[in-house]
Amino acid sequence: MSGVSTTHNEEGKVAFKGGEYARAIECFSLHLMEMPADATVLANRSFANLKLARPDAAAADATAAIAADPSFVKGHYRLASALVALHRGKEAVAAVDTALALKPSPAVKEQLTELRQQAVVLAASGEEIANASRAADEATTTTDIRMEDVSADGGTSTEQAEESDKMARKRAEAHKEAGNVAYKRGRYDAAVQEYAEAMALDPENATYCCNRAAALLMLEQAQPALLDAQRALALDPTLLKAHSRAFKSLVQLGQLSHARRQLEQAVDRIDGANCSLQSEHALLNECDGLLRNGKNALALDTDIAAREAAHLFSNLANKCPCSVAIACLQMEAILRSRPRQGPPQVLSESARWMRKHDDQPDLLCVRGKALYGTGQLEQALKHFAEALRLDPDHTASRKMRVKLKEIEATKARGNEAFQSRRYDEAIAAYSETMLLDPDNVDLNLTLYTNRATAKFKAGDFLGCVSDCDAALNLQPQHIKALLRRGAARLELEEYKAAISDYEQAEQAEPNDAQIKQGLRRAKLELKKSLRKDLYKLLGVTKHASDMDIKKGYKKAALQWHPDRHHSSSDEDKAHAEIKFKEIGEAFEVLSDPKKKRQYDEGADLDEINGNGGGG
């Protein structure tokens, strides 16, 4: 036994004891690639399959163990257990009886007796089972039963057994033929069932195992296909088709080094195999090349190389559809080559793999990256944490977790500063967060809109518009950015541009009351802008307080008082008088709360002073 095989076997035992039965099966399978006729490991894998409620696979492994060592009690025990799980009580009774005839230890005999009772209850449907039960009981208490005892009808037990075996083989062959017909018609599920029936009737026929492996491969069920191919090889190590199907199963699973070893075993054991397996060698070389070139492209870390890697891994994934490792490489390349569309695509694809492989650190990591790419930082962190729990040395997950923790902390600092109205600090924190990952579209979309809001609150309306422009460049119909830019443009008195922003937002959300209110306000501000601007006359903004208005009036009145222009030209005197009069009118309106409210609501001076011109 090679050191590698021993290691796989021991790893399988550890995994089994830890309740990781799928992992145990994987390790035992790797061991059996080196030593396909190891009865003990076949029995162990049978037990692991039973734990995962796979009685068909368990029965197949137990049968292979018996074929490798007919005197191996545990093999018969595992077969009986699988048959009970399959509700094939009569066959289970026979399997237990065979084990009991091998004179097991008292402890094992007790377990077999209990199992036999279950099988008898399951099979109890007439005198035939009762007779079989009595005969088996006698076999456990006496050692001098002769194989040629005469049966009640005058024939011998051996003759009856031979006739029964002959009939079973005939029925098995009929199921095989039915399976072949179903396979040729593309009904692979039906073919699998027919071959399974044939295997149950004639479990030592390697061809039936090999045929079911072929049907399972067409269904892209590589792991059970590999088990069938290995069982066939345990029965007949020189069966070339079984080597080929084991190879194809390993390729579908993405285990390329093991696939190469499978071909080497075939060449070693079968004369002329190298010529017959030329297409398999070509496929393996192609897969090796795709994997090598894809990894090299991914390592270059450029947009062009990422697109090339995505193309290469896509081709490889088509040839290895059951490989979670290759699927992870493909998804990693998609994330890098398509930073905007990639994360949602990978979220969908990874969800399919997670149903059966939620304990794979690489899968958890790449899904975490996709979650991060769609702005779901909290969920992303949970995925990286779980990947590190499964593999504390998983470098990619650790790096991403550290990076996201820093992003989360810096962004939170900006949010806290904003809530405390320390807007300059918030702007600085959001800017710092952007630098941590300038390529994350969703993250930067949020940060641009957050920073735009902080700049708006700080009175930097031009800066607010700039950040909204950047956000809308990432997502053209982003409602929050449109509304914030519209509000900033109102402050900058760019009324028509503001109306355009609100109209775009209304097209996207036609029933939003807030958007409708903003659009009405923008149109009102445009209308108001066509009047004489009283605030400008006083040199203040429309948000000025009563004190600011008084100060503005005093300053403007002093500037344009006629006494200051008595030495000016007649034209300048006339202009100063007009300005002084307008300033007085502006102050009259803006210093009166009622008139100011009317003015702010859009009324012109005639309406304010003359009630619409009536009188």
Can you give a write-up of this model?
The chain has helices spanning 3-17, 21-34, 39-51, 55-68, 73-85, 89-101, 106-123, 127-141, 157-184, 188-201, 206-218, 222-235, 240-252, 256-269, 273-276, 278-300, 303-319, 324-337, 342-354, 361-373, 377-390, 395-419, 423-436, 441-457, 461-474, 479-491, 495-508, 513-529, 534-538, 546-560, 570-590, 593-600, 605-610. It is built from 33 helices and no strands. The protein has 615 residues and is mainly alpha-helical. α10 packs antiparallel against α11 and α24 packs antiparallel against α25. The protein starts with a helix and ends in a 5-residue tail after the last helix.
Major sheet: none
| Silhouette | rod-shaped
The total of helices stands at 33
Q: Name the beta content range.
A: under 5%
The overall average pLDDT, rounded, is 87
Category by helix and strand content: mainly alpha
Regions with pLDDT < 50 over 5+ consecutive residues? 125-154
- For the secondary structure, the number of strands is 0
Radius of gyration: 41 Å
Helix fraction bin:
over 70%
Distance between the termini: 115 Å
Write the layout of secondary structure elements.
Layout: H1 3-17, H2 21-34, H3 39-51, H4 55-68, H5 73-85, H6 89-101, H7 106-123, H8 127-141, H9 157-184, H10 188-201, H11 206-218, H12 222-235, H13 240-252, H14 256-269, H15 273-276, H16 278-300, H17 303-319, H18 324-337, H19 342-354, H20 361-373, H21 377-390, H22 395-419, H23 423-436, H24 441-457, H25 461-474, H26 479-491, H27 495-508, H28 513-529, H29 534-538, H30 546-560, H31 570-590, H32 593-600, H33 605-610
